């Protein structure tokens, strides 16, 4: 029985083996991305495991991961390909020495030019091509997972550059021509939504929004990441973090902060949450002084509801 | 099932999701791959191919639930008649509004005219859905068409004939009377079902046509003249307009400007020619981003306009990153922080509460505005003042504005009053004209949009 539901449940189990607890939506999108050969565009608040999904997928599929971190000013020579200039330089020197042999015996200028044209020129050829992450992912033999991280940080031109790759898994190099993918990679783009991405890009991708997880899911994530944490403490700290997210904070604590916090509580040999402990370790959870100022007066109420749960 | 999916996509479009044909094709492939049997799976799958942002996702979830809950029962019927939905009667709505004469329902076979014994509610609904498809209910656009379509559907179901039959039976034997009673109950149930179907269709269509017409109207009318019902709808409209503007102007910032020659790149790229520079490469010079200072009058007469302009500028944050907002009744106060902290509508309410109310004092306002920004003003700064220039006969502050005029690259005055009222009464706009590069009238949303479009052309 190979129903889609079956396949997706299998995917969830496989991802769990890699330490990634996926929701139904995440698994369905991943399944569809492989079925339809579409890139996935992941959006969501920082620290909910957008990049982690790519890592887990690459480990699960046993495919190499090519990661491209985007930033302002990223261009094709850093993302797509470049030429091996030093090798090309050597090639030119070799060529110069051979020039005499090639052109030797040519009677007229016209015939010399004719010979030069017949000479096989490999100056611009794949041999001198230095592949960057995008091209590497396309040229990978067994397929690959290509992670284009924080695409919203890149310029608009770069977005346009990506369109060809995302739609057809092809790149066009002006000097050589169009190179296709040997094996279509699984492409995952992440965005922190610092700006709107162009519609053209969104249209070519499956869109996945990962929100902060529900308490039960987050508890499972902590369990899978930090298995040493006792059950009671885990439930309490997850409930506490959920309480904190209700407040108006500059930066809401994400899953990665919850995990960090769980680890640090473990180091402090805590078995349950108490006020002193939370006060001392709050800076692991909250990254801004103002946020700590907001949470501190609410501590008693938050702790009460967290320990009751 | 494809027809149902297409109808669902149309439904999404009515609710503001912009689904392109390419995405529809994707959705088809998704549905084909996942199948229709598992509802939650289909939901997740369609969501990732059709909803492309967080807001769209919320709208999508609502639409999905509404569509596939209300529509589930009639799905199979829709399938069978989906092909006929093109040929709806194109008669004018008026002649069907009159109840038909009892004799003229010739085409109705009267499937429910007595023979349909033991008709279940589901079968009834299916019948109604089929009739609704025959008369082209999907084309209904305004709530006011409700009556027309109810009549049309009932006609298609042979309602006139039934009424006649009921009337005929009501005067007969007790048996006949009983049957008449049963029939009229059936008829009532049918009418109820028809109403339900029509209401659902209205909900699905979400009055899309009516709203787009309304938006057109709102863009042309004066904001001061709008009542609160329409004013509440302004922010989404403004954001929509701003998004369009932003996408039009986004590219331009990156237009490369030729700078100094790039020696390294030129050398590398010309290696092929033995270092002879056939191709020359230049460094790009980064264009300095311009700054915008916005000074908005918050006094009663123009405060709505100020809110609209501030909303607009906030929504353009993508292409106008360095905009600073000031408001005044008396002294000018910077409010950029409030916009940073709160969502836009809330921020406007706070600003209005804290700084609003009162007559405008242009003298104090412009002088304090100059004092705050003077040291930042340079040839990249653009200053926009929004106000009607009616200082209630007080100090005009023209000297302060002239100072700004000499330092800044561009000083614009947006006046929401129509041009023929300028310079009447206590309006000092003529004097301000001498200290501005341009005084523009921004009487409607469309004019304001055009002004900002021009502004973006100029400064980017």
UniProtKB/TrEMBL annotation, chain A:
Superkingdom per UniProt: Bacteria
SMART domains, per database record: AAA
Gene3D superfamilies per record: P-loop containing nucleotide triphosphate hydrolases
One Pfam family from the record: AAA_5
Limits of the AAA+ ATPase domain: 36-214
Family annotation (PANTHER family): MAGNESIUM-CHELATASE SUBUNIT CHLD, MOXR FAMILY PROTEIN
Designated name of the protein: MoxR family ATPase
Species per Swiss-Prot/TrEMBL record: Spongiibacter thalassae
Lineage: Bacteria, Pseudomonadati, Pseudomonadota, Gammaproteobacteria, Cellvibrionales
UniProtKB/TrEMBL annotation, chain B:
Bias kind Gly residues: ranges: 109-118
Ranges for region Disordered: 80-120
SUPFAM superfamilies: vWA-like (SSF53300)
Classification via Gene3D superfamilies: von Willebrand factor, type A domain
InterPro entries xrefs: UCP010256 (IPR011195), Uncharacterised_CoxE (IPR008912), vWFA_dom_sf (IPR036465)
CDD domains for the chain: vWFA
One Pfam family here: VWA_CoxE
Protein's name in the database: VWA domain-containing protein
